[in-house]
Structures are given as C-alpha cells and as structure tokens.
C-alpha cells in the first residue's frame, strides 16, 4: 500500500508547486530560490503542520522526480570541462574537502556525536547541482569563466559523492553498484553505435526524424523510458539508480547532439514542470521537525561544517583565477546540498548506522543551505541584468552563437 498515490495529496503538492512559481514570478526581486518555497510548502501541507498529506502518499512519483533532478544535472554537464582548468581545480577542491570531512567527522565519531562515519563524511562534500541549476540559469550566473567554474564545481561535487555512495553504501553491495556502472557504460556504447546508424540515413533515421515532434515524441519517450527503467530496477529507490540517472543524462547529451535540438527544453518542461517540484515538496513533507527542534545545535553544527569543509577549499584552490567576490560565489554554490543528503539519510536510517536526530539535522542543514547560500551568491553578483541577447545562448559551458 505504500506505493499507492493519494490524489488528494498529489493535488495539494501541485498547488504548492503552482503557488511557488507564481510567487517567484510576481516578486522577481525576492531573494529566495523557488526550491525553498517548495520545501516550505511541503512542510506546511505535511503531517507536522496542516496534515493535508504525508510524504509516502506521493513517494513513487517523488522517486521519479529525484531521478529527473539527477538526469537533468547530468545532461547539463559537459565532460570536456574536466579536461580544462576549471574541472581540474574542481577535482582538487573536492579532494581537499573529502580529507577535511574525514578528519572532522572522525573527531565527531570519537566524541560520540555521530555513528555513521562514511555517510556523514560524504554528505559534507556534496553539491546540489540539480537543485541549483534553475537558480543559476535564471540569474545568468552560468555565463563566462564564472559559469564554467560554477558548473565544474557543482558537477564534481555531485558526481563524485554519488559515485562513492553507490560503490561503498549501495544497498545492493559493491558488485551491484559496479554492475550498474558497467551497464551505463554499455548503454553509452550501444547509443554511440545507434547514433552512427541513424546518422547514416535509412528507415530508422527517417522514423526518428519524423517522430521528434507532434504526437510521437520518440526521443522524449525513449528518455523517459530510460529514466523509469533506472528507477524501477529495485523495489525501492536506491542511490544506484540515482547514479545511473546522472550518468544517463551525460550519455544522452553526448548522444543526442543535433538529432533533437529541443530535447533539453522538453526535458525541462516535463521535469521542472511537474516531477522536480514534486520531489522537493515531498522532501519538505518528510522533514522531521520534531527531531530538529529537540536538537537544533546539531543542525547548526552540520550547517557550519558544510560551509567550511566544502566552501573553504574553494576559496584557496581558485585563488589567482577568480576575484574574491566570485570565489565567494563558487564557495557558496559548492556548499549548497540537499538531494544527496536526503538519500544519505535514508541509507543511514535503513541500515541503522545513522542516529535519527543526525539524519534530520543533516537534511535540515541541507535545506538551510538551499535557503541561504544561493541567495547570498546571487546577492554577490554585481553584473548588469541579463539582456535579451543572452536568451539565445547555447547549452551551459558553450559560448552563445555568433551572428
């Protein structure tokens, strides 16, 4: 019965999603990202406030929403960034963050404050790229050198922890996690061969070409099938599927190319139009406010550690490349986390290695980072408003088309 979707709760979630979008549209200067309004709306309609519905009422659809978060984040990543200076610095800064997290959490573990050493350590190194993309896009922060460093920092901060979690904390074991990686690699090879076959012409090429629009939407349907298959590989949503969704997004971007130039806008429409907001409202509904209220200092501790462990190394590694103001923006963006923290808390609670109060405080701290850090990063931006010329810019990481 846990997998049954309540239509009443779903209608309330859709209402929160619409109100959040209207508030952002009516008050464009509001220094609060839309995702924060979604989380707050989820708390409002959740069991701790109005009790309109519970998180488990829409868990199945929220699983798809989390998959969309990572699919869209992976689709946005250009792997060529890793070979550039921005990518190399992002890897170095994440490595330093991991070492700092290991030391700090080791001390907390010795003091008896935490039990789940590895989940908490990895949680302090995560970056919520999928969560940040709408904010960074809307505010025009993904252009130029700053945009490349922001994207590289976010991509590394999301991919590396997810990869480590899937291998070391995956509920199906390391062998299954490595098998899922191999499956995604095989998918990339198959898609590459298929792309060569399609580009060579023939009946299949004609079918795909004619079926990209109108009622067929073949490419979009294939993408959704891929995502749903990844989500359905287990009876419950595991991080292995999240990793697959992120990697699948990167594979899709490389494979689709010019085959369907508007696929990204279609994915944005279905993802940001329904599934992604649903996931964040679901996260707000599931937030354990009682545990946070009983131990508020734990939330504050994790919040400070996220900023110092994840943002601190950025200030040093990017020294000499970006001015102090932009280094501060990258540090704030890098320290923003939530989706992976939700998954980490679920893994820790399910395995019995994470204290309930720590799980709630970790997710609560992630919610606060989403509330504060992107707004502060935007406030640090002093460039003129985004002009109409930038509305035709290409994908993130590529310069706008010349005329």
UniProtKB/TrEMBL annotation:
- Topology with respect to the bilayer: Multi-pass membrane protein
Q: Which coarse location class describes where this protein primarily resides?
A: membrane
Keywords for this protein: Antiport, Ion transport, Membrane, Transmembrane, Transmembrane helix, Transport
Q: Which GO terms describe its cellular component?
A: membrane
Question: In which compartments does the protein localize?
Answer: Membrane
Q: Which GO terms describe its biological process?
A: proton transmembrane transport
- Coiled-coil segments: none
One GO molecular-function entry: antiporter activity
Pfam families according to UniProt: Na_H_Exchanger
Domain named Cation/H+ exchanger transmembrane: which ranges? 19-376
Q: Where are the transmembrane segments?
A: 6-28, 35-54, 60-79, 91-110, 116-136, 148-169, 175-194, 269-287, 299-318, 330-349, 361-380
The UniProt entry's sequence similarity note says: Belongs to the monovalent cation:proton antiporter 2 (CPA2) transporter (TC 2.A.37) family.
Do you know which PANTHER family this protein is assigned to? NA(+)_H(+) ANTIPORTER YJBQ-RELATED, NAPA-TYPE SODIUM/HYDROGEN ANTIPORTER
| Protein name per its UniProtKB record | Sodium/hydrogen exchanger
Q: What organism is recorded for this protein?
A: Modestobacter italicus (strain DSM 44449 / CECT 9708 / BC 501)
What broad taxonomic lineage does this protein's source fall under?
Bacteria, Bacillati, Actinomycetota, Actinomycetes, Geodermatophilales
